[in-house]
Specification:
homodimer, 387 residues, alpha+beta, six-stranded mixed beta sheet, four-stranded antiparallel beta sheet, 11 helices, 28% strand, elongated
């Protein structure tokens, strides 16, 4: 059995520490590592994760065994370390499981191992107006997977990037986006054209200023990444403005805790409506993850429905909303740049709010194209590039 | 000003009850309705929701006014009911707002109005093995918007439907799906072919039995609707099996509360991996909404990663997981049918778990096509059809 098949995965798991010993207890096995760590593994967990070809189909590397088909009182008849350093379990029902020590250590669930994995998770780098804008080169990221990975890590962790040297033919954005994955379609299309239109079905398609917002807050899952590619920009005005919504939310948490809490707790409805669609989504403006970190911002004043909360809470919600919007207007948070033809923005649409100054269509043409990709596709692409 | 422009919406708001009187208090206006209800509206709320053409762009019907641009101490100079029965507010800064009484009543946030709206929300109809399968006719739903709406309401509320009379040319599914919206693409394509393949990148593309599961639990947002369209079904076996995941979760809540709670609280990782992608998502198997109702099931044993919870919680998680899987196998919950050529399943992929019996490719060909649409698109389509 080779190591890859033995872990039922496309990753490799380096040997952090060898298995030194193994003890059998009533409901678990204790694995003792050369570096002194002791990791308990319950019998059910070990049987469930058996990587043998009977339990995992070798072509798809997906499990065919289901733990409910094993007795809940199943126990090892024997547990030992084999000559290759693997944990070997002889089950009472005759099944045999072998565990690669690199894989086992990577999935150990003793407190220390879990804390290590938690600490290794990437955390966002928060920024303000003095951000050194991360700029990437089109030719490099189209041709070189290392350059691509470098860009995608910046998108993931900083949430605002610019790419230069992009062709200005309409549709060129598609090839850039597809270096990551397929594009997420919406009712505005696969690629959308950001131009001032007489029959606009969104304020984005006017020459108005657009206040700081996330796109499609009206959907259950806001698009993860947004691309905006400049083809023509001869009009006066129309500068792009960005703020780090996570940085603002964290500042709000410090400076006005009740307002922060109100935006986490009270759901707000966002609405997109035209003759052909009617999207509505009720959700708080600030979402936290299980650890209390700010995980998402949902905001577009022009797509917001009437607040619908109790009479008692309404004044607090208005205070919090005013405060948050006022903060998005503060210079300490804002990055403003004019995008030139052949440049594109790629940013985290669930974190980085974007705005546009009003422009004057009488002074010249302005044509941007945009599209979306979801965070799942970004993270998958990063994991594949990191293999 | 006509009524449509005055409510900045594509809906109409019938007059439930006329405005009888209005009282000004320090921070709010009290609207008194003909049926005796009294609805408070805070000054900020009224100014924020002014539907006049200065505040709302009439082409897009999106707000251009931002409440942060009004003083937080802004008050009405006068509030009265005009000769058309509308609430009229003269603001101290000279702005004038007029509110349609139908719109105002539909957005009133006194306790009684909020409770009424909550009670009017659609709730899922839970089912077991004795479900009268909702069956719809292809020609009717393709040509008649009422038939289409009838089908979509069944998809929303029951979560399992069959359509008959569908052409069996490959790709025919696309036209059915597009009666609702664009299709949600995934790494398996826009339409995916469910056939036994030698180089399968998913157990779905083998002839194995597939246990009851949701598709793509490895994504942050599981696809809302799944379509499975039968083109050819000459092989022995391969029957479709469905259970209502919400009904099972509610039964688990009654029959084994600690197991139910564990599946709500303890996140589990699901993984899709092949040579080109590496999707991972950590989330609980049962998700509740803000009111404690079961809102989503996430489950696919063959895509599950190793459980990663504390040593203390691990035995409870295995007990709960075994119990849930065992319940999906109980006859009281299961609907089993063989799908014939020209028939398709359309079901709520976040609620209705589906399974397939093993089939024998040596006995004949079997070819299904599938695709996904998200719940946002379903709900938007229903709202437009209901206008």
């Amino acid at each position: 059995m080779n190591t890859v098949a033995a872990v039922a995965d496309f990753r490799t798991y380096p040997l952090i520490s060898a298995l030194n010993g193994v003890q059998r207890l009533a409901d678990r096995v204790l694995a003792e590592w050369a570096d002194g760590r002791v990791s308990p593994f319950h019998h059910a967990w070990l049987r469930d994760n058996c990587p043998c070809p009977q339990c995992v189909y070798s072509v798809t590397r997906e499990q065919v065994f289901e733990i409910v088909d094993a007795s809940s009182s199943l126990e090892p008849a024997a547990a030992r370390i084999d000559s290759d350093g693997r944990l070997l379990i002889d089950w009472q029902d005759g099944h045999l499981s072998r565990f690669d020590p690199g894989w086992l250590r990577a999935h150990a669930y003793d407190d220390e191992s879990r804390a290590e994995r938690l600490a290794a998770k990437p955390r966002p780098f928060l920024w303000r107006s003095d951000l050194q804008l991360p700029v990437f080169d089109y030719a490099a990221l189209m041709n070189d997977n290392d350059a691509l990975l470098h860009w995608l890590l910046a998108v993931r962790d900083i949430g605002l990037t610019q790419v230069r040297g992009v062709p200005t033919e309409p549709g060129s954005l598609k090839a850039v986006a597809q270096r990551i994955s397929f594009i997420r379609e919406s009712n505005f299309g696969v690629l959308f054209n950001v131009q001032s239109k007489a029959d606009a079905d969104s304020n984005a398609y006017t020459a108005f200023n657009l206040p700081l917002h996330t796109d499609l807050p009206t959907r259950e899952l806001q698009p993860g990444l947004q691309f905006l590619h400049c083809l023509v920009n001869d009009a006066e005005g129309g500068e792009s403005i960005f703020v780090d919504g996570f940085a603002i939310a964290e500042a709000l948490r410090r400076e006005d805790p009740p307002s922060f809490q109100a935006l986490c707790d009270i759901p707000v409805e966002f609405r997109n409506k035209d003759r052909h669609s009617d999207y509505r989504r009720l959700a708080p403006i600030i979402a936290l993850d299980a650890l209390g970190h700010v995980a998402e911002i949902r905001m577009a004043n022009f797509l917001r429905g009437a607040f619908d909360t109790s009479v008692e809470q309404m004044p607090l919600l208005y205070r919090a909303y005013r405060r948050f919007i006022a903060m998005t207007r503060e210079p300490r948070f804002r990055v403003m740049r004019r995008l030139n033809p052949g440049e594109l923005w790629c940013f985290d649409n669930r974190r980085t709010l974007h705005a546009r100054n009003a422009f004057d269509p009488a002074t010249g043409a302005r044509h941007f194209q945009g599209c979306y990709i979801d965070r799942d596709e970004l993270l998958s692409r990063i994991l594949v590039l990191q293999r």
